[in-house]
């Protein structure tokens, strides 16, 4: 680039002294230790010189063309500089090494507001709030964006002294867009996995609604075999499994009997929710399974009964329903649906009920938290070891991440790629593996 700039100046008939201006700009940029800025300073200096000095029109045109190409090539670096996540000269290269684990996690905005968390899009917020650009346009425009690196989690340090860096890659699709346009969503997840590979990551995790696209990650893995893909299902199941005994014990310690209690599981045909139903079924008196397909709910109920009878465990009275209002009878509610909107509202909840919400975005509407005596416990929240910092709000509280992101980090740190979660099945030995390795590396479930 430098040689090109100097040669360009010479060909356009400028004395060599003028190249100093270009070099000076380059040196200034280098002082910031951003290589991209230094590279961009050179064609910028050249372009400015062609304006202030008498040069032929073709030379001016060529200089500005060179600047345009350079800006386009460095657009991602410019955005990362704005976000403060572009590596500087002298910093260790952000690649996997003995001391450093590098992985990526795909995220998406939960609301239109989330679009503007990233500094590269923050300037556009006022266009929406002032009504200059309609929200519907933003959604339509977002479907054109390829995945990009929008953030980074740093400072996670395992008990054995390694640092885990996790790049956050986003394609700005909202939950309802991911569910209603599965082909586009799968394409974006595949592009995200390719980007993660280009960034040097060994593992990419599919977060929130990305975890259900492409047959729960299977098609993404097939399309990009050069990187390990996980939907995070095993450790999510592990955190649920670990949290439930505590919740049930707390419930009993408040003077209520589990054997006489009614529990409800919402989204009961799903992987996470059915796992919960299996775990709590032998412990409660009555179990209400809520879903969107009655035939499959009946099958799930039959499987539960058979399993309990085979093991000689108590069989509760199991009710299946499509009506969410049925959970009003429940003392304990467990929810893990794939619905992009809240499904549980105050009128569905009995006063004093406890709700364990594993949904991302949450299944429980904010207004439920104001009900007297009702306790809403967010599920699948994990605190990684070290002092994690990041530039985005992931909606899991400061210093905390979802279990599926933790699984991505653990998989990359352990290199046990055969344990990755793909498709709808979760092996119990993999659940056990993540629970044990998480504990050993210093990850803690938030309860
Ligand atoms: N915290 C974490 O780390 C983490 C990790 C993974 C997943 N999750 C979250 O856990 C939830 C479930 O994940 P999953 O992998 O189990 O998904 P899943 O297998 O697709 O199951 C979701 C279930 O929810 C049902 N459902 C959707 N809308 C519903 C509604 N309005 N009422 C009742 N049921 C409804 C679906 O019904 P159909 O069968 O008819 O489609 C499906 O059976 C998601 O919100 C996901 O983001 C959290």
Tell me what you see in this structure.
The protein is elongated. The protein has 447 residues and is α/β, with parallel strands linked by helices. The longest helix is centred in the middle third of the chain and has 21 residues, at 233-253. Helix 14 (271-280) links the parallel strand 6 (262-266) and strand 7. The model has no long low-confidence stretch (mean pLDDT 90). It has helices at 2-11, 19-31, 35-52, 57-73, 75-83, 119-122, 125-129, 135-142, 175-180, 182-198, 213-216, 218-223, 233-253, 271-280, 294-311, 403-414, 428-441; strands at 100-107, 148-157, 163-170, 203-206, 228-230, 262-266, 286-290, 317-321, 332-335, 354-357, 375-378, 381-383, 386-390, 401-402, 444-445. It folds into 3 domains: 2-73; 100-232 and 389-395 and 414-445, no CATH class; 236-382, Rossmann fold (3-Layer(aba) Sandwich), CATH 3.40.50. 43% of the residues lie in helices and 16% in strands. NADP nicotinamide-adenine-dinucleotide phosphate binds at residues 208, 211-212, 232, 236, 266-267, 269-273, 290-293, 336-339, 343, 358-360, 380, 402-404.
């Amino acid at each position: 680039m430098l040689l090109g700039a100097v040669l360009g100046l010479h060909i356009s008939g400028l004395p060599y002294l003028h190249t100093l201006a270009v070099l000076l700009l380059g040196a200034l940029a280098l002082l910031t230790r951003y290589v991209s800025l230094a590279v961009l300073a050179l064609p910028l200096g050249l372009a400015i010189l062609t304006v202030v000095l008498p040069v032929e029109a073709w030379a001016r045109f060529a200089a500005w063309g060179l600047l345009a190409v350079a800006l386009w090539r460095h657009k991602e670096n410019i955005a990362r500089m704005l976000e403060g996540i572009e590596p500087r000269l002298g910093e260790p290269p952000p690649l996997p090494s003995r001391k450093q684990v590098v992985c990526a996690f795909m995220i998406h905005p939960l609301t239109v507001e989330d679009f503007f968390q990233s500094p590269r899009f923050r300037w556009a917020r006022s266009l929406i709030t002032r009504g200059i650009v309609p929200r519907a346009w933003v959604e339509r425009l977002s479907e054109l964006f390829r995945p990009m690196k929008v953030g980074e989690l740093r400072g996670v340090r395992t008990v054995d002294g390694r640092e885990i860096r996790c790049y956050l890659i986003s394609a700005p699709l909202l939950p309802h867009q991911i569910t209603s346009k599965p082909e586009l969503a799968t394409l974006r997840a595949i592009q995200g996995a390719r980007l993660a590979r280009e960034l040097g990551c060994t593992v990419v995790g599919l977060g929130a609604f990305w975890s259900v696209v492409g047959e729960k990650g299977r098609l993404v893995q097939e399309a990009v075999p050069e990187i390990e893909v996980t939907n995070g299902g095993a450790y999510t199941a592990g955190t649920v499994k670990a949290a439930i005994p505590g919740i049930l014990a707390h419930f009993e310690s408040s003077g209520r009997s589990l054997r006489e209690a009614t529990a409800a599981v919402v989204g009961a045909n799903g992987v996470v929710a059915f796992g919960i139903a299996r775990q709590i079924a032998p412990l409660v008196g009555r179990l209400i399974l809520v879903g969107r397909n009655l035939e499959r709910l009946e099958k799930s109920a039959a499987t539960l009964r058979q399993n309990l009878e085979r093991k000689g465990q108590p069989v509760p009275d199991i009710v299946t329903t499509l009506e969410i209002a049925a959970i009003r009878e429940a003392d304990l509610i467990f929810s893990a649906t794939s619905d992009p909107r809240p499904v549980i509202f105050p009128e569905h909840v009995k006063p004093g009920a406890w709700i364990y919400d594993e949904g991302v975005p949450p299944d429980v509407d904010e207004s439920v938290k104001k009900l007297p005596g009702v306790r809403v416990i967010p599920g699948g929240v994990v605190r990684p070891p070290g002092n994690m910092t990041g530039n985005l709000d992931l909606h899991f509280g400061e210093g905390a991440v979802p279990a599926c992101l933790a699984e991505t980090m653990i998989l990359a740190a352990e290199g046990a790629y055969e344990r990755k979660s793909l498709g709808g099945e979760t092996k119990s030995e993999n659940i056990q593996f993540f629970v044990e390795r998480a504990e050993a590396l210093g990850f803690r479930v938030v309860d």
